Amino acid sequence: MKIKILPPEVYNRIAAGEVVDRPYSVVKELVENAVDAGATEISVEIEQGGKKRIRVTDNGSGIARDDLQSAFLPHATSKLETEADLMGVRTLGFRGEAIASIASVSRMSILSKPHGAEACRLCSEGGTMGQVEPAAGTDGTVVTVEDLFYNTPARLKFLKSDAQEEGDVTAMMARFLLSRPEISFTYYANGKEKYRSYGDGLSAALVAVYGAEILANLHEIDADKHGIRLRGFIGNRNFSKPNRTYQSLFVNGRYVVNQTVSAAVSNAYGAYLMKRQYPFYVLFLDVPPEIVDVNVHPNKADVRFADNQVIYGSVYSIVSSVLDGNSRALEYLVKLPESPAAEAVPSPKAPPATDPAPARDAQMTYAEAKRELQFAIPVHAGKTSRPARGYDETPAALSVHAPAPAKEDAFEENKKLLLERDAARQTRVETASLVYKGELFRTYLFYECGDDAYIVDQHAAHERILYDKLRESMQTRGVLSQSMLVPYVLTVNAQEFAFLSKNLGLLTEMGFDVCEFGDNAFKVSAVPADLMGMDLPSFFAEILSGLESLRAIKLADIVKDKLASAACKAAVKGGEQLSEQEVLSLLARMNGDMGLKCPHGRPVAVHVKRSEMEKLFKRIV
Fold it and tell me: Which CATH number applies to 8-202?
């Protein structure tokens, strides 16, 4: 077999699959270049989710006429010169692959003007360059990318809908506003302004992205510990989000998703968050460049730390101190929240007046920090202790994931189904033979049937009834809607907006009247008649909690299950007093099936035989 050297037009397209897989990655690479060029004003415009056009305009240093052609060549960069430079990368871009990769799969032009020089333009079609030509322009650079993947139809067909691609670009732009609050950004999608910031600080950037009310729920921190600096904002312990799209981590100014830091923050919040709720944070982790490797993957989406143990321990210690309100929190907090809407920081026990105020950690070497943490890995109260010795320092070991369920073959599944059906037949009771005897704790209903007694959990029973009725209504398209006196407005971020927009049809099938209400909101005007009075914030939080996992195959089926399960929150609660008529109605709707389980798997009823009761009182042995 003869070995062949691939021509540039081939290997550039291969490289594009790593560096440029979607419109958002094009925006990311181009904006990073603008930041590295020293721009103080950056404008981004996209059309059709970035598929038709992406334009990034900056007022940075510009590209000289003689360098324009080099900018389109692979591995051409102004940011590295030697191999040693890789160990101290401080710029966002450094590989020199982005422009060549983007140009190879699009129609691209660069118009640039360095200060004091003439403006020039160079165009490329599918990687084939034209000639450098004079042009009119102001100081800085304008990069235009059109018809992305026009010459690679296999990749083009795998792109998401325009709305979803726009949502991911919008999410990326939000992170640029947050990561570079000193830069003024404007962002337009299909001619409509989505974001505008003025370069006046992180608090203002947070307001531009999440709205003014967000600040009342956050703690601002700035801490130095074990040779690293952690700064930014974290949600108070009563503030959470239904998915991880509200989490932003910037390592040395670069947005990354890192399992070590994610696990440290999640574990610090562990005692305060309910199931399927996630912390909100915008954090900046500043570490010496020599102890972090940014050259892990072509898209630079993750980094590798020289010592995960120190990173995990330091982040955990800082965040948990603030949440728990111990004395160290006063060192880490920039200021206490003043708004009455914000949760006050738990008052730490003040040290005796004779004790000096604790000093900030002195700058430690990593070796010193590792020795200090070796026998004191931070562990939250109530959590399983992590071993101090033999600690697994890989990011995978630090991630928090439930074990994957064991797979069962088809025979076992069928067998399980048949057994459940047999059990259901054995647990069905004639409703007319059940005599209501009363309730206990306003939760449990007691029924007598000959020598048998049944204790029914009113909440679990109502949950299952609503679940079954809703599923049947969706399947037969027979659901009825009930208009609300006051519509409910749901505010979301860009990715959640795209997700819900795609699935509005499923909500309509359930009986909801939902429509888009501005750029980042939906208006709910009607709900299924059977669910009138439901807790809408909890309902939609339940849906959005599965944002990442719901991007799988058979999306419609998964969403229906998720919606039906969430809707059961409308069921009567334990502790609510039911009238006799409501008790009779609940029993009738159960249709005598005492083997039911609620959608979460809990039993609806418990069967107790008379003989079991008599054994308890020693009447029989």
Answer: 3.30.565.10
User: Which residues are 256's β-sheet partners?
Assistant: 249
Phi, psi of 613 (to 5 degrees): -65, -40
Q: What is the pLDDT of residue 80?
A: 39
54 contacts 46 by C-beta, under 8 angstroms? yes
Q: pLDDT by residue (tens digit) across 365-402?
A: 545 554 544 443 433 333 333 333 333 333 333 333 33
Distance of CA 579 to the CA centre of its chain: 43
Residues 6+ apart with CB under 8 A from 356: none
CB 483 within 8 A of CB 621: no
Which tens digit of pLDDT belongs to each residue from 121-152? 999 999 889 999 999 999 999 999 999 999 98
SS3 labels along 142-154:
EEEEECCCCCCHH
Burial class from Cβ neighbours inside 10 Å (0-12, 13-18, 19+) for residue 444 reads middle
600's tokens: 């979460």
Helix (H) or strand (E) holding 526: strand 521-528
Average pLDDT over residues 286-314: 78
Q: What is the C-alpha separation between 321 and 307, in angstroms, rounded?
A: 22
Which tens digits make up the pLDDT trace of 67-99?
898 888 865 454 434 444 444 445 554 445 788
CATH superfamily, domain 421-607, is MutL, C-terminal domain, regulatory subdomain (3.30.1370.100)
